Automatic annotation (TrEMBL):
Top-rank taxon, per record: Bacteria
Family membership noted in the UniProt record: Belongs to the cation transport ATPase (P-type) (TC 3.A.3) family. Type IB subfamily.
Location relative to the cell: Cell membrane
Organism: Streptomyces umbrinus
Lineage, uppermost ranks: Bacteria, Bacillati, Actinomycetota, Actinomycetes, Kitasatosporales
From-to range in the entire protein, with total length: 305 to 598 of 662
Annotated protein name in UniProt: Heavy metal translocating P-type ATPase
């Protein structure tokens, strides 16, 4: 063909299911030294399911009551964990009360008013004050099983915990191996989730460098530190919480299917066919294109 090499690289990337926003992206992808992968929705399928519902004994709530309350508050959220909570409530045929004043804190959770009471749903570490003894041990037990524990508070008081489990993408392990081969460095995991769940999952795909409990700006700091050391970092993510790191990195790629609008807008390229394996494929392509250009 008579197409310039970088343009034909964009076309080839499209065939692999990756939409590159410019020719420059294809050039940059070829320079990547280190890949930083997000966990929820990136390394995992992003369709987590509620596995445990544990109301706090003193709360007066049963399983259905706790789930309905959490789902009402989570309803406006596009986070994969929020979708899992709403889906579980639907499966039980629960009616959700209307929520007002919804706000979300990326990497932490959501707050809304439901039935005149303030409901918070999110990370036990970030919602602070896991004061109840029972709640604390319920959280730890779930995390020891590799689950994401999500705390529910009503007017500031913990009323229960939900356990949520997500599965690895089927091509996660092969993708980590291919990226290690291409860059000479094993990818690292950046996640807002708890350390126990993150490490268990990382071990299954051969990742040992795990940075857990990160807020969006902590992901940025990690990326900046590697880039200050002279590394070109590729960040792969899907969430609102990944957007700042996608923007800060040498190159950012968003997972398209479950990806939030903000992540899709911020990234330099989008994986439109929902396969993680497309990433090493386009990195390899850009390297070939660079050789042709040079
Ligand atoms: P990751 O970096 O793995 O994609 P996030 O940064 O999106 O994860 O979320 C980090 C943690 O914040 C979650 O494990 C959860 O505890 C909490 N969290 C964030 N958003 C929500 C939400 N909508 N509902 C419940 N928990 C949430
Ligand atoms: Mg994510």
């Amino acid at each position: 063909s008579t197409m310039p090499p970088l343009l034909s690289a964009i076309a080839n990337a499209g065939r692999h299911g990756v939409l590159a926003k410019s020719a420059v992206v294809m050039e940059r992808l070829g320079q990547v030294d280190l890949v930083a992968l997000d966990k929820t929705g990136t390394l995992t399928q992003g369709t987590p399911r509620v596995t445990d519902i544990r109301p706090e004994p003193g709360s007066g709530l049963q399983e259905d009551g706790l789930l309905a309350l959490a789902a009402a508050a989570e309803h406006p959220s596009e986070h994969p964990l929020a979708r899992a909570v709403v889906q579980a409530a639907r499966e039980r045929g629960l009616t959700l009360a209307a929520a007002t004043g919804f706000t979300s804190a990326p990497g932490a959770g959501v707050t809304a008013t439901v039935g005149g009471r303030t409901i918070q749903v999110g990370s036990p570490a970030r919602l602070v004050a896991v004061d109840g003894q029972d709640i604390g041990s319920a959280v730890q037990a779930l995390e020891d099983e590799g689950r994401t524990a999500v705390l529910v508070r009503r007017d500031g008081t913990p009323v229960g915990v939900l356990g949520i489990a997500d599965r690895l993408r089927s091509d996660a392990k092969a993708t980590v191996a291919a990226l290690t081969e291409l860059t000479g460095q094993t990818p690292v995991l950046l996640t807002g989730d708890n350390e126990r769940a993150a490490r268990q999952l990382a071990a299954e795909v051969g990742i040992t460098d795990v940075r857990a409990g990160l807020l969006p700006q902590d992901k940025v700091s990690a990326v900046r530190q590697w880039e200050d050391e002279g590394l070109c970092v590729l960040v792969v993510g899907d969430g609102v919480n990944d957007a700042p790191a996608l923007a800060a990195a040498h190159t950012g790629i968003a997972m398209g299917r479950a990806g939030s609008d903000l992540a899709l807008q911020t990234a330099d390229a989008v994986v439109v066919r929902d396969e993680l394996a497309a990433i090493p494929a386009v990195v390899a392509l850009s390297r070939q294109a660079r050789r042709l250009v040079v």
